[in-house]
Amino acid sequence: MYRVLYRKWRPQTFNDVAGQKHVTTTLANEVAEGRVSHAYLFTGSRGTGKTTCAKILAKAVNCLHPVNGNPCNECEICRGIDDGSILDVIEIDAASNNGVDNIRDLREEANFTPVNARYRVYIIDEVHMLSTGAFNALLKTLEEPPEHVKFILATTEVHKLPATILSRCQRFDFHRISTEDMTARLQYISGEEGIELDDDAAVLISRISDGALRDALSLLDRCSGISNHVTASGVSDAAGLAGKEYVFSLTECIANRDASGALTIIDKLHSESCDMERLCEELVDYFRNLMIIKTVKAPQDIILCTPSELQRYRDRAEKNTLSGILENLSVLDKTAAELRLSTNKRVTMEMAVIKLTVRENAADIESRIERLENRFDSGQVNPAVRGTEAKSGKEEASAPPEKTEDKKPDEPIGNESGIKKDEDRSEKTEPDVLFNAWPEVLEALNISDKPLTGILSNSSAYVRNDLILINCDNPVFSQFIRQPTHASAIIKAVYDITGRKFRLGVYKTSLKSTEKKDPLAELLGKINNS
User: Fold this and answer.
1) Would you call 39 helix, strand, or coil by DSSP?
2) pTM over 0.85
């Protein structure tokens, strides 16, 4: 009968356990010196060897001919424990036996001496699943068990265990198995099984498994079922990965603000049954690598990739700022949490990619701020003026003042040129002309800035020299136009339609005629005057 690889190649001695030298060395020494504790607690993530070490320890303390603290695996006790004929080693699943009655039965059984072995060993897996009453029932027996009883508790969530349990056990923390140790183990097992495993495929399996050797062997088993020659592309297909080329292409679209191209790639990946959660994880890993390159002097020691891929990461990192990379990671981190609860993972992932592509580039913002600070330092711009210059590629945006109601009629928003406001008004050499292309600008805004399009419905615009004066009766318009992102969207839309760079302004025929008196203010004025 065929046995899966992770069961067939389960370590039988402490020396076979991969990546847990700090645990296996201590346990082997304790057995060899006869200083075995009455209760052990093994903690760590899944697939790191907790249950395996528990079984090895159970055999080692009962072995008739131990070798340097390891079981011989040849005596009748070792063979009986392996085939289940010796019932003095009891493995309990606390997930399904978590009640008080189960622990009471265990306490009663513990009073009986072992039949064949030296010690009766209880291995309680997923011990954190025990109820509060069960923990309380276990306390006294765990603290002072009979001389012939040993307890080995294993859990992946040690924080759920009561402090009274933790204080009664000798604790060992199992680490995630390193990529080097896991790759070496995979190469050894594949060689023994006659599987041709490429080096890059072994590294990829190790990366995907996230420190869990059991997951790595399960994935290797699946890949070997497809082909006896396991390659990196085969691993990628078996695991449902997007593949490095897809990731680089998708991130290239994000960098170039190509939302259409990014959605096309996601559509292709979805049609090929690529898991959207795994795709999000790969994008997080990609931007994490860029972050490492930006902050670490020797990133090759931390990033798991080939030298050619590392060079590609370096090239991409030079084109990104650290703040922009961190913002992308923040968006993807929120998306990863949303994907777990989403009913339509594809739409959630598409929304995230759109956010990354249309989001204002952090590098552009930093560049604009730096140029503005230089102008302040050189005295070209009066700090009292609220307007700012904002340029990004073909865009030129003007940051509006905080209070548009204090502006004079037809006064432009911002003062990018540095000319005084009175001089701006004196330069009016042409009459105001109706801007006939305004409907086309609104259509463009309907794609790039939908909220602003609703605000500007039934609005019009006029041209005066290099100004676009917007005539809008919506009271919310003054709040929206103060935000640089909306102002930039309008200026870009006008540039795309006309090919000219304009500044923005608010069109007002007469300030006094449009002002409305506040009845409450009038009443307060009369009271004060009286």
Assistant:
1) strand
2) no
